[in-house]
Amino acid sequence: MCGIVGYIGKEEALPVLINGLKALEYRGYDSAGVAILVDGEIKVKKSVGQVKVLEKDLEHEKFLGHLGIGHTRWATHGAPTESNAHPHTDCSGRISVVHNGIIENYKELKKYLETAGHKFTSETDTEVVPHLIENFLKQGNNFDTALIDTLKMVKGAYALAIIDRDNPETLYATKLSSPLVVGAGVGENFLASDPSALIGKTKKVIYLKDGEIAKINSRDIRVINLEKEVSPFEIIQLEWNLEQAQKGDYPHFMLKEIFEGPEVVRATFRGRVRSSKNLVKLGGLEQVRERLKEVKRIIILACGTSYYAGLIGEYLFEEITKLPTEVHFASEFRYRDEPFDEGTAVIVISQSGETADTLAVLEKAKKQDLLTLGIVNTVGSTIARETDAGVYNHAGPEIGVASTKAFLSQLTVLIMMAIYLSKDKSSTKVILKELEDIPAKIEKILAQSDNIKKLAEKCRGYDNFLFLGRRYNYPVALEGALKLKEISYIHAEGYGAGEMKHGPIAMISEDFPTMAIIPQNSVSDKMLSNIEEIKARKGPVFVIATEGDERSASLANEVIYVPKTLEPFEPLLTIVPLQLFAYYVGTNKGFDVDKPRNLAKSVTVE
Ligand code: F6R
Q1: Ligand 1, closest atom to CA 486?
Q2: What number is the average pLDDT over the span 156-167?
Q3: What angle, rounded to 10 degrees, do the helices at 449-459 and 570-588 form?
Q4: Start and end of every SIS domain (predicted)?
Q5: Do residues 184 and 235 make contact, with C-beta atoms less than 8 angstroms apart?
Q6: For residue range 162-172, what is the model confidence (pLDDT) as tens digits?
Q7: Whether 163 contacts 96, CB under 8 Å
Q8: Which domains does the chain have, with CATH numbers?
Q9: In whole angstroms, what is the distance from residue 260 CA to residue 262 CA?
Q10: Of all atoms in ligand 1, which is nearest to the CA of residue 303?
Q11: How far is the CA of 199 from the centre of ligand 1 (A)?
Q12: CA distances (Å), 417 to each of 28, 115, 251, 411, 484, in order?
C-alpha cells in the first residue's frame, strides 16, 4: 500500500507533493514525508500521522525547490515512527527514495550493506535501496547502472521514486508489481501511485510497466528497461475531473460517494443498455465475442467488497445466464490447485485494478490460457491492462477507504454482463427496464437518511451486530457487516439466515442486535421465521423491508423501507441503507470514516 508522489517542473514542488499525498492518503496514513532538492542539497522532512501533520510541521521551514518526492505510509516493516517514515536516504544524503511495496530479501541485503560499512537509521525494508545504489555508485558506475544493478538485486514488489543530488534535472521512477503512473504536463511532469493524485494537474498519464525505469525531467519523459533499451509507452487520457475528487459540501468522501449512488448506476449503464430493444452493448467485450460463445463455466475472483459483489454475480450468472459460476477470494485461489477445463472464463473484479492478490490470480489464469475478463473502475490500471477484455465501471474516483459507490457499479456491470452472456433473452427485457428505474429508487432511500441517522444514534452503544440475509441478500449481509466493522469498529458478522440455527443464534441476547435484510421476495417467509426465533430470545431486530410490508415492520424494533424491485436488483437497494448506517454509526462515534484505522484502500502487498 503506501502512496508515493514525485514532481519536477516550473512550480514549487512542495505544494504539489502535499496535495498529491493528500489525495493518496486512502492508501495509508501512518506517517508522511517529503524530500526536495533545495540549493543543491536534498532536504528531508517526515512526520508521524496524516499528511496534515507534515504540512503543519513544514509551515515555518523553507523547502523551496522544483524537484521532489513524497510518501504517505501504511506501515509494514517497522512501527509508524519518524525514523521509519519515508523518504529514506543513503549514508551521504545524496540519494533519496520513497517506496510502495515490500523488499522481501531486505534482511540479507541489509546485512551485506552493514558489513560493507553502511549505517541504517530505520527498521524498514526500503532503506536498503538508497544504500545499494550508493554501493554501486562507489564502484564507479553512473547513476543509471547503479540503479539497474540495485533493481537486479532486490526481490519483492516495489514502486520507487528516487532523486539524486548529483542529477538535479531528473526524477527517477521504477516499478515491479506495485502501481506507478507518470503524469505528463507542460513544462512539468508528475509521478504518483495512481492517477487520483494527478487530478487537476494533468489528464495525460503513462502507466509504467514492470521492469521499466522512467527518467523524467520538466520537458521530457524517457522510459528504458533493465537492459538500458528505450521502452515505448502509451499516453492515456483520463476521464476523471477535479470535482469528482473533491468533497464539495459533504463532510466526508464516504457520504458523498454514497449519495453519488444513483448517478453512478446511471453512468455505468449509460450508452450500454437499451431496454426497448432488449439490448446490452458492452464494447469492451466485443473483441472476445467469439470466445465468449464457448464459455461453459465462470470463476469470479476478487477481494473484500469486490468479492461480495462477485457473490451476487454468482446468483446473477446462474439465474440469468444459466452458466455454472463460482466465486473465490483471490487470496485463497492463488494457492489452490483447481483443475480447469476448456471453456472456463475468469472474471476478476477490482475497484483499484491494483490489488496484489487479484493480480496474482489473473496471472495464474493467464498461464492456464483461460479467457480473462475484468470489471475494473480505474482506467488503465494493471488489472484492466492485463485482462483479455473487460468492462469499466465508470464510477469515477472512489476516495473513501470503505468501498460504497464502486460496489453499486460492480453490481450494475454484473447484471449487464449476465444479460450480455445469456443465450436465451426471452425474459431479459423486463430486467433491463427495471435497471433503468433503479437510480430513482436509490434516490428514495437516500431521502430517508435522517431516519437512518437516528437509528445509528440508537445503535452506537452496541458492541456486536449480526447481519442476516438470504439468496441475493446474503452477500449484502456480508457487505453490510464489513462496512460496520470498517467504519465504526463494532464487531459485526454477516450470515446467511438459514445458517443462523447452526450456531450464531447462541450469541443472541438483549445486547446482541440483528440487522435483517428482508425485502418481499421468494425467501422472505423463511427470513421472517428466523426473525421470530431471534425475537423469542429477546434479540433486538432492525429490518430492511419493502415499502408497505406491515408484517416485517410488526416484528422489528425499527424498520427502514426500500422500494420494491426484482429480486436480482435487491442488493442495489438494500445495501444503500446499510452503507448509510455504517457511516452514521462511525461518525456518531467520532471516527474518521474516510480513513479508518489500520486500513488502506489499495492493498498492493500480500
Ligand atoms: C472494503 C474495501 C475493500 C476492497 C478490497 C478490494 O470497503 O474497500 O475490501 O473492496 O480491498 O479492493 P479492489 O476492489 O480495489 O481490488
Answers
A1: 7
A2: 96
A3: 50
A4: 288-427, 455-596
A5: yes
A6: 999 999 999 99
A7: yes
A8: 3-237 (3.60.20.10), 250-445 (3.40.50.10490), 448-593 (3.40.50.10490)
A9: 6
A10: 6
A11: 21
A12: 33, 58, 35, 10, 29
